[in-house]
Design goal:
By secondary structure, the chain is α+β, with helices and mostly antiparallel strands. The protein folds into 2 domains: 186 residues, no CATH class; 199 residues, no CATH class. It is built from 14 helices and 12 strands. Strands 1, 2, 3, 4, 5, 6, 7, 8, 9, 10, 11 and 12 form a 12-stranded mixed beta sheet that branches. A hairpin with a 2-residue loop joins strand 3 and strand 4. The chain is elongated, with a radius of gyration of 32 Å. It starts with a helix and ends with a helix. The N terminus is likely disordered.
């Protein structure tokens, strides 16, 4: 038994040595073959790291806002509809109003309700200008819902909220971009071409996603933003609702639904003229988007791996032909068909295994680099790493079978005569 194990170990060790010698001799040919496997595996690892990181950020954002927070919208669609060309079923729906938000806020099931709106605009001061960013019209509860902290200054006063004063709390990063080391509090900046006084600096939570918008560059009193800017009332106007502790989301949603139906005088047979969007729906929608994206990447990577596998087969067929005399010598010295088959399978698996290992390193590095550029925190996808290693080696075995069988079937006499 011990001799058999020693023989098996020696056989595997010898075959691995032969495989590395063959790769070293044909560096260019082997390198081009490995490249296809590297591209396929690296693509999968990069996309997996990105998707995993973004999913983590989405989950963190929802934890900040609270898993019970939900939104009332005129219409919810996975992609924004064109406000200039709305279908009839959307046009007949009334816009959300501040009165509806106030009524919802008085419900016994609700801790907070407020109407918010969003526009895209650039921030400008003394010739410095930011890229277009999300500007949110909200109230002094913005931080309670979206998280983050006020690093300097203050939120809005009741008078500013009621009258719609031109004041804003801007993101600290935007303030540094506009003012450098100057104190921005009390300064007047242009937001979307309109003068606004800076009253506070806001530091968002450490994630790039904050449903239902991203990268809030500035927050203004809702009343000012609503009347001073052109608001897309279909896609960018919503009521944020947070149930009281101990009240389930479904109970709060039912109370909100009944209240809005009553305010809009809907009959029992009428459908709702509004949509409710929960955090779970946000996650599910995002999951579908990233799932489709990841599937496309898997298909593209599979094509690259297939090309790499075909390249392995071609290289191994050439290798078998070039090493015909070597195979003849080994058979003349007692090597069996099984030994020759195992030799070339190990060589093919080694080729793709090296490609897979390099692809994993390149993919993880690329994923980490892209994540850093997008300020996303990612963890290495351990499970997928193991799968990538197994898959790359498996490709070598599968595509190496035909060349290995060809080598194993060579007649030793004919092989020795081969020129």
């Amino acid at each position: 038994m011990t001799l058999h194990r020693q023989f098996s170990l020696d056989t595997w060790t010898e075959n691995f040595g032969i495989a590395f010698d063959a790769l070293r001799i044909s560096k260019l040919r082997s390198g081009l073959t490995i490249l296809g496997v590297v591209i396929g595996v690296a693509t999968v690892m990069t996309m997996a790291s990105m998707v995993q990181g973004i999913e983590k950020q989405i989950t963190n954002a929802i934890e900040v806002a609270g898993p019970t927070t939900f939104y009332v919208m005129k219409v919810f669609n996975t992609s924004p509809v064109n406000p200039e060309n709305l279908p009839k079923w959307i046009r007949i729906r009334p816009d959300l109003t501040a009165e509806e938000a106030d009524r919802i806020a008085r419900l016994p099931e609700v801790l907070y309700a407020g109407i918010w709106a969003q526009v895209q605009a650039s921030l400008e001061y003394a010739g410095q200008r930011t890229r277009p960013t999300i500007v949110t019209g909200a109230d002094d509860h913005f931080q309670d819902i979206q998280g983050g902290e006020l690093s300097r200054g203050r939120w809005f006063t009741r008078s500013e909220l009621r009258t719609g004063s031109p004041v804003a709390v801007i993101q600290e990063a935007k303030a540094r971009q506009l003012f450098g080391y100057l104190d921005p509090i009390g300064k007047t900046i242009m937001i979307g071409g309109k003068p606004v006084e800076v009253v506070g600096l806001y530091v968002p939570p450490q994630n790039i996603f904050a449903p239902p918008g991203i990268d809030n560059g500035a927050i203004m009193p809702f009343r000012y933003l609503y009347f001073a800017y052109r608001v897309d009332k279909t896609n960018a106007l919503f009521i944020c609702v947070k149930p009281k502790p101990g009240v389930s989301v479904s109970d709060a949603q039912e109370a909100v639904t009944m209240t809005l139906r009553e305010m809009r005088r809907l009959r029992p047979a009428d459908k709702n003229t509004f949509d409710l969007l929960t955090q779970d729906q946000i996650l599910n929608t995002f999951g579908k988007i990233t799932g489709t994206f990841f599937l496309v990447m898997i298909v593209l990577a599979s094509v690259a791996l297939l090309v790499g596998g075909i390249g392995v087969m071609a290289i191994m067929m050439v290798s078998v032909t070039a090493r015909t005399r070597e195979i003849g010598v080994r058979k003349a010295m007692g090597a069996t068909r099984r030994d020759i088959l195992l030799q070339f399978l190990i060589e093919a698996a080694t080729l793709t295994g090296i490609g897979g290992a390099i692809g994993i390193v390149v993919g993880l590095a690329a994923g980490r680099g892209l994540s850093a550029m997008m300020s996303i925190q990612t963890d290495p996808p351990i499970g997928l790493t193991v799968i990538a290693v197994v898959a790359s080696i498996g490709i070598g075995v599968v595509f190496g079978v035909i060349p290995a069988q060809k080598a194993a079937r060579l007649d030793p006499i004919d092989a020795l005569r081969y020129e």
